[in-house]
Each structure stands twice: as structure tokens, then as C-alpha cells.
Amino acid sequence: MTYCVGLWLRQGLVMLADTRTNAGVDHISSYSKMYTAVVPGERMLCLMAAGNLAITQAVWSRLQEGVRLDGEVHTLSSVGSMFRAAQLVGAAIRSVYDTDGEMMEKQDVRFSVSMLLGGQIAGGAMKLYLLYSAGNFIEATVDTPFLQIGEHKYGKPILDRALKHDTGLDDGVKLVLVSMDSTLRSNLTVGMPLDLLVYQAGSHHVRLQRRITEDDAYFRGLRDCWSVALRDSYRRIPDPGWL
Amino acid sequence: MTYCVGLWLRQGLVMLADTRTNAGVDHISSYSKMYTAVVPGERMLCLMAAGNLAITQAVWSRLQEGVRLDGEVHTLSSVGSMFRAAQLVGAAIRSVYDTDGEMMEKQDVRFSVSMLLGGQIAGGAMKLYLLYSAGNFIEATVDTPFLQIGEHKYGKPILDRALKHDTGLDDGVKLVLVSMDSTLRSNLTVGMPLDLLVYQAGSHHVRLQRRITEDDAYFRGLRDCWSVALRDSYRRIPDPGWL
């Protein structure tokens, strides 16, 4: 499995992905699930993928070679807007389905893929999209400032409670790491290392891209700090008087 | 959906179930998912159910009428041990499958049911079992002191982090309520009111059975307290120096 989460904040984007891939418990490996297309000062796009690895890699390869959209071949470096970029990723997904979908279904392999696409292209607004296997998509809004793909349930409660569109980038980074930590602890099919990307709205370049490994001092500190805080927190809840 | 959780603690059992039942979003109602069989001073058994409501009600009805196990008809009030009680519930599930399973499958309705059975019968140890649709089951242990059925992922991280077999009953109650609160906030198909049961090991009677409604002062306080604590907790995590 996979867990990827993207935050669409007033100040910018925070994107986080794990790297575990498994085809059965005895076939586990690490793959980056985060791809970027950057033209500094002009555009910054970040794509994260969950689902069948053969599909997600095929989608990314097609996007690099160019995908036909309304008669023209485009890449993420050439499309004119984030909406067109999301359509392009959707077209790439459909193109992979056209090639591989039928044979996969014959062999009872689900055509399963979902993607988060975040970024900004000069002249347009910063966007965050979630794309489905069918190539269609939804968009983050002020009311729903985060989107998740893959094994999303363990890490959702903290985001539901604490995250707002106005949350700062620093706090956003902490929250996605806490959300990921909850997932890592509860589900072995999501695994370290992690890929983190931070984008500041209006900048059109990557503010930070960081691979967080098992021995990353900050992440270890955050995990410990969060565990202690949770234990303290429930102990501070008054005892039920009726027990 | 449903969320039920049972804790198997040194001091006793804590069992919590929501009451939401839905057959589509426009067909939502409340049903208790918690059943008890108590012979005070001799036995206390508590059963909680998730899955298809027609199945879970049929299982409970059969258990009340008596189910054949190794040639004898028994109820939860007559079986000789908790292990036999779990086998009896399993036999009831299989008996419902024998009656309804084929027709359900013909109509593409999954035979989906899972149950938590906790309790103690005089002369034997206190036990907590999780039963599957096939009528087979697993048991809580010191290493795995909690079992969940239904929509379990949202509420798992807090239990993974904070719950031990040595956790006291007071703290156990707080933790299941926090775990349920996380689930209620993240998934609309799990709903209030809640049914809570607390059993003290060796007592063979119910220590507490409580229906927790929307306006339960303790639960409202706990929800507020936990929300504030979570927000404070992540704010106390140091900012990443590298951002």
C-alpha cells in the first residue's frame, strides 16, 4: 500500500509520500512515489501516486514523453494551466488503461491508481487535485484543504481536527508528518523513507524537497514528542465520575 | 457501517459500540449492536456485532433460542466456558449462513458479519474473541489487548500508541471513547448514541452499562478536551529547522 497526503494551504503546498511498494508480503521494495516538473520561476508541479506500480510508472513515463490532449501533445512542462495539467494526467491514465486495462482485467488485476497533483503555473492559481483511476478528478478547496490517496484512514483524524486552509507551512509539515506517523505505526504496508515537498504560493519553484529516512533526527523527535503528548493528553482527560 | 471495540485488560473488559445502521445514505437508523447474557455471580458475556443487520439479528435470535453444538443445544447462559461460548456464536453464524447465505449470494449481497465476544464464566478466565463471517475466531492476548470490528482504522492509532494490557479501566474507558470520537469525526456512517459496558475481572456481573447520547456531559467534555489537547500537542512539536 501507499499513503500520500497533500495540503492546499493559503501559504502554499505540503506534499508527503511514503515509498513502500509491495506485491505480497515477501516482495517489498522502495520506490519514490513523488515526481516533479519544475520550470523555476514559471511553474512547479508535484505528482504523487498510489495503486498498481506498473500503472503509476507507465503514467509518469507517458507524461514525460508527451500525452495528446485536444489534438496537441503536451507534457507537464508545457501545459498552460493547472486544470489542463490535471486533464493531461487524466489523459495519461486513460492511455495506460487503453493499453493495459483489458489484459489486466482478464487476469483479475484491478486497474487501480490514484494520484495527487499539486502546483502552480505562472498566471494561474495554486491548485491541488486528486485523480481517480478513470482519469477524472476533484480539487482541494478552502473547506477541504487536504487530499489523501492510498491507506488514508489512520492519518485522517488528526487532519480533520487540526488542519485549516489558514494553517501555516511549518504547522502543515508537522501535521502531515504526524498523520504519516499514525499510518506507519498502524499499517506495515506503508513504510519509510518519506518524500516531502514544500511549495510556497507564488514562488514557482520548490522551497524544500527532502527525503526523510529512519534516522532523520527531526522526524524521530516528532514521533517521540507526539507519542508522549498523546499519552499525556488522554491522562489529562478527567476520569468518568460514573465508573 | 459500525465501529465496535473491546479491550481485554488485566482489570477487566471495556466494550464500546456505536448504533448507526445504514442501508444507503437515505436509510439510516439506530440499532443497539451490543447484547449481553448475564447470570449474576456466575457469568457475564457481552456480544457486539458489525456487518449485515439481518445477519447479526438472526445470529442473536438463534443464540437466544439455542444453537446445537456437538449434539447439545446451548445458549450463552448454558455453555460451560468462554471458548465454548465463542464456538456457539460461530455455530450460530454458520447456521444463519446455511439458511440465508445462498440466496444472499444469488442476489450479490455479501455474507458479511463480524463479532466481538467478551466475558467470563465462573471457573474460567476472562476472554475476548473476534469472530469472522466463517464462524472461526481469534482471541485477545497480552500483546494484542484490543480487538476491533467494522470501521476500525480511524480509531486504531490512539489504541496502538497508548493501550497496554495493564491499562486501568478508567483509562480504558477514556481510550475507547477517544478512539470512537476519532471515528465519528472522520466517518459519517458511524453514529451516536454509543453503548458502553465495563466488566471487572472476576466479578461475573456487569459493572457498568451506559448509553452515551449526544448530550452526555462527560463525552462532550472528553471530545472538547481531546480536540484542544491534540491541537496543543502538535503546536508543541518544535518547528523543523530545515524549512
TrEMBL record, chains A, B:
InterPro entries in alphabetical order: Ntn_hydrolases_N, Proteasome_sua/b, UCP009120_prtse
Superkingdom to which the source organism belongs: Bacteria
Transmembrane portions of the chain: none
Entry protein name: Peptidase
